[in-house]
Structures are given as C-alpha cells and as structure tokens.
Here is the input.
Amino acid sequence: MIMLNALPFVLAIVLVAVFSFDKVVYLVAFFAPLSIQLHEISGGLDYDMYLPTEPLLFGLLLLFLIKILHKRSFDRKILLHPVSLAIYLNLLWILLTCLTSTMPVVSIKFLLSRTWFVIGLYFLTAKLFSEGKNLEKYVWLYAISLVAVIFYSTYHHLGYGLWNREAAHFVVSPFYRDHTSYGAVMAMYIPFLVLFSFNSFFTKKLKLISLGVLGVIFLGLILSYSRAAWLSIAVAIGVWGIIKLKIRFKPIFITLVSVITLFLLFQSQILMKLEQNSEQSSANFMTHISSMSNITTDASNLERINRWSCAVRMFADKPIFGYGPGTYMFQYAPYQLSKDRTIISTNSADGGNAHSEYLGPLAESGLMGMITYLLIIAVVIYTAVNTYTRLKDVRLKSFVLAALISLITYYIHGFLNNFLDTDKISVPFWGFTAMIVAIDIYSRREIKAQKNPD
Here is the structure.
C-alpha cells in the first residue's frame, strides 16, 4: 500500500531526473535531515531504507549507468581524479569481500548502498560543482532542513527540561538515530556557517541570516550532548589554525610521532591516571566533557572499548577478507568478553555497529578495508591543502578550507562513531569531498588556460 501511494511521487521524480539530474541531487540534500527510516512507517519488513532519499539515490545510480552506456562519456577529469581512484579501490575491495562474506546478502546490500551514495553524492555532485558553481546552494539546502530538525528536537527537549541529558538521546527521533549522529552533522556545517557569516564577499543580509542559523546550529550542538562532536570541533579549530599559520608538515609530523612515542613509553602510567577518573556523563557541561576520559565507570566509554575490542578480535580471526561488509553488528556478539560487557551491551543486531569508521572496515573487510578508507582520507586532505595553497580566487579558497575543516570534524568523529551508512552523514561527507575535487579540477584548468592563452 505504501509503495502504491508513493508511485505518483516516484514517477514525477523519474521524469525530473531524466531531464535534470541536478534537481534530484538538490532534493536529496534538502530531504536528508528530514528523511525517515522505513521501519518507522511500516514495521515487520525484512529490509530498511531512508525515505525519500535512498530511492532517489538509487534512481540517480540507474540514470548514471544508463547515460554512461548510452553516451559512453562522463567528465574524465572527475573519473580519473586521484580521489576518485582511491574511491574505486575502496569499492573494489568491498566488492571482493562481498564474495568472501559470511553473510553475502547483507554485504551486497551494503555495497549497493555505498555505491548509490558515491554515485549520486560524489560523482554527480562533483559535476554539479563544475566551474565553482552551486556550492552555496548545496550547503544551504541541507542547512535549512537541519534548522527545522533542531527546532523540532529543541521543542521536544523543552518538555523534558532543556538541560536533561538523557532526553537528548531520543528527542531527535525519528529524524536521527541518536544524539551522536545529530551532533556530528551539526559539527560538519558549522565551518560553512562561519564562512557565510564573516567573509566580505557575501552580502550583509546573507551574513546576518547566516549568523542567525549559526547560532541555532551551535545551540543544537550544545543540546546534543555529543562529546565526540564537541571534540571534533576542537580538533578542527586546531587544524584551521595550522593551515592559517602555514605551519609546515615536517614539524607537525615530528610532533605526532613524539606524542605517540611518549604514549607508548608511558602508557601504563597514562592508563592508571585515566582509571582514576570517575566522572560520569552528565547534564553539567564541564563534568560531561571530563567524563570523555573516564574508562572505569562511564558505560558509554566502556561500551565503545567493548565494541572496538570485538572488532580487533574479529580482525585477528579473519585478517585478510574480514567477515564481510555490513556484517559486524551480526557477528560481533561471540567476541564480547564477560569482563568487557557493560549495562548497555547487547547480543542483538539492533545494538549498532563498531563505533568506528576505521575499526569497522578492519573487522568487515580486513586490513585492506581499513587501508583503502584511510587512503581516501589521505588523498582528500592532500588535494584540499594543495588546492587551497594554489588558489587565488578568495571565494573558492574559502570554500575549500570550509569543506576540509568540515570533513576533518567527521574524520575525528569517525574514531568514536560510524554513520557513513546513512544519508544524514553521506550527503555532507561525499558532497564536500566532491566540492574539493571540483574546485581542484577547475583551478588547474584556469592555471592551464592562463599559461596557454589562445
């Protein structure tokens, strides 16, 4: 019945996609914060998806394949860009580990989902950003809907008391899974709202509107009580400072190696110190922040360690191909040790994933699964820094920096949670990656044109 009722809407979208795929990309960006999982509408189904975004993305995938087969062409600069090559390698390894998966159907579903996210939100969106166009529109479409969700969740939060931390976990339902994914996406949009609010090349009216939206999103970030999101913002500010101060890579690398070395040398003392921290997650902000290092009694922290430990043990059993993409949540239960279990531990598949964008692929697709994902991140950062350094156009330079800082927030957040299987995070993650790639291609073309004028 649901599918029949949705048929006219689907047909209308298909017609729009055939004549103008960019409109569908915009629809996905707008609806992503407002999308709802199918099981929220109709329970008891064997499959799930985000509505209306995933059907739209699947349609874009089909349209992309049809156009490629018919015209046998797409922008070669995008297809052969180093970031694209890194993405191909990651998808190829996911495909290979689907063939060796312990749960092939689950893994194939995972591959399909990842593919339509990448096609619609990276390749087609990069095409949309050609010549440095449509950047503001893509950001604003998501931001407007996100503000609506923030008002909705804050209104519901008021009913439980605005500073009720426990309420933060469920007031974002049904739009976000929990407060952590909600916090992660707000952290990703803050760099762009700062850009819109304080850069001189925007009108005064737009800057005032942006400042208001920035205030709303910042309030939402605080009320999300997501410690991972707060941490990611702090690290992103540090990265912004490094780029602005033009600190060279060598001293940063030496500092990182020194910190890691000191940790390894004094890890026993450090862990003993951390075990003395008994602060619990709390509505008090300072207490809530200090609880981030509590690995003795804080159930949230301990459960993450439990999930990470399971991922490492799973990797030890299947280090080459892993258990299969998307299978962690179904396979990790036997790897839980009784001493690691917490009051929120579960053996069921509804307990979430590995709580890490890095250890998840390690358990599901082996060492190469994690390495290929890290390769994407490394190439994106390298491309962004080089493009930022090369650019003379102030507007595009600012967008590259905002996109990079936004992605940095999620790269950091990815150590503690994983949401790339959702449209909520995939829209900014792949979209901002496409933004960096499109501006890189455009800037290289401009430099080449200046060197070789007709």
